[in-house]
Automatic annotation (TrEMBL):
<feature type="transmembrane region" description="Helical">
    <location>
        <begin position="92"/>
        <end position="111"/>
    </location>
</feature>
<keyword id="KW-0443">Lipid metabolism</keyword>
<keyword id="KW-0812">Transmembrane</keyword>
<dbReference type="GO" id="GO:0006702">
    <property type="term" value="P:androgen biosynthetic process"/>
</dbReference>
<feature type="transmembrane region" description="Helical">
    <location>
        <begin position="59"/>
        <end position="80"/>
    </location>
</feature>
<keyword id="KW-0256">Endoplasmic reticulum</keyword>
<comment type="function">
    <text>Converts testosterone into 5-alpha-dihydrotestosterone and progesterone or corticosterone into their corresponding 5-alpha-3-oxosteroids. It plays a central role in sexual differentiation and androgen physiology.</text>
</comment>
<dbReference type="InterPro" id="IPR039357">
    <property type="entry name" value="SRD5A/TECR"/>
</dbReference>
<feature type="transmembrane region" description="Helical">
    <location>
        <begin position="147"/>
        <end position="170"/>
    </location>
</feature>
<keyword id="KW-0560">Oxidoreductase</keyword>
<dbReference type="Pfam" id="PF02544">
    <property type="entry name" value="Steroid_dh"/>
</dbReference>
<feature type="transmembrane region" description="Helical">
    <location>
        <begin position="21"/>
        <end position="39"/>
    </location>
</feature>
<comment type="similarity">
    <text>Belongs to the steroid 5-alpha reductase family.</text>
</comment>
<dbReference type="GO" id="GO:0047751">
    <property type="term" value="F:3-oxo-5-alpha-steroid 4-dehydrogenase (NADP+) activity"/>
</dbReference>
<keyword id="KW-1133">Transmembrane helix</keyword>
<keyword id="KW-0472">Membrane</keyword>
<dbReference type="InterPro" id="IPR001104">
    <property type="entry name" value="3-oxo-5_a-steroid_4-DH_C"/>
</dbReference>
Length: 265
């Protein structure tokens, strides 16, 4: 892996420059995505459409598209001269990242029950994003990120870590609720209840947004912030779309339930 990176970049200074530009580009893509999502829902799940390509089995799609977010960082940590992985702040941030993606790429796909096929375009874009972001996050944390020795006791790191953990728990628990809405043999959609679904329609999205916002606060870098911004844009749009869909489909949908932020929005 070191040889490959050496062939791509003439120096560490150049690679860090590229990593920074990648983060800024992700923020730009978040802005473009925000505009696009004003007119079109992300085409997977209940919003899947044949105009975005042939269908890909949902379990296969989730497994393959998320795998670069796990394998590329794993190779970067194991197979390169990771100069910063001996430092505690870097270790903890890398652990947060892997904790999410081990669950998302190696566990979540095999727990899916039913589910609509994913259009190829959505599958391909997700694959590219996971490859791009996996390299950007972990290469920066494992080789370039520098934190003061006291960083793990800094309020930003502590608050960010708490937010990340709370978001991770909400995300995993909400996915569990969604998987178990239907009894064996049942089909169709049901109103999710329990956990944060008592307060918002997009509890799973709220969990993931909170998770990466905490990661960004703890990591305190343009790279982690860009990821949090992009995630917030995509998942906020999806939560609002779900909220409108639930209200249109179910006459008895709870009127007090918000789209994404309890009691507010």
């Amino acid at each position: 892996m070191d040889a490959l990176l050496s062939s791509l970049f003439s120096s560490e200074k150049e690679e860090l420059y590229i990593l920074d530009r990648m983060a800024y580009f992700m923020v730009l893509m978040a802005a473009c995505t925000l505009v696009t999502l004003l007119f079109e829902n992300v085409p997977y799940g209940r919003y899947a459409s044949s105009k975005y390509g042939f269908p890909v089995n949902v379990r296969f799609a989730w497994f393959v598209q998320e795998m670069p977010a796990f394998l590329v960082p794993l190779c970067l940590v194991v197979s390169t001269s990771s100069a910063k992985t001996s430092l505690l702040p870097n270790q903890l941030l890398i652990a947060m990242y892997f904790c999410h993606y081990i669950q998302r790429s190696l566990i979540y796909p095999f727990l899916i029950r039913g589910g609509k096929s994913t259009p190829f375009a959505s599958f391909a874009l997700a694959f590219v994003f996971c490859l791009y972001n996996g390299y950007m996050q972990i290469r920066y944390l494992s080789h370039y990120a520098e934190y003061p020795a006291y960083w793990v006791t800094h309020p930003c790191f502590i608050a960010g870590s708490v937010l990340w953990f709370f978001g991770w728990l909400v995300n995993v628990h909400s996915d569990h609720i969604l998987r178990n809405l239907r009894k064996p043999g049942e089909t169709g959609y049901k109103i999710p209840t329990g956990g944060m679904f008592e307060y918002v329609s997009g509890a799973n999205f709220l969990g993931e947004i909170t998770e990466w916002a905490g990661f960004a606060l703890a990591g305190y870098s343009v790279h982690s912030s860009a990821f949090a911004i992009f995630t917030t844009v995509v998942l906020t749009s999806r939560a609002v779309a779900h909220h409108k869909w639930y209200h249109a489909k179910f006459e008895d949908y709870p009127k007090s339930r918000k789209a994404l932020i309890p009691f507010l929005f």
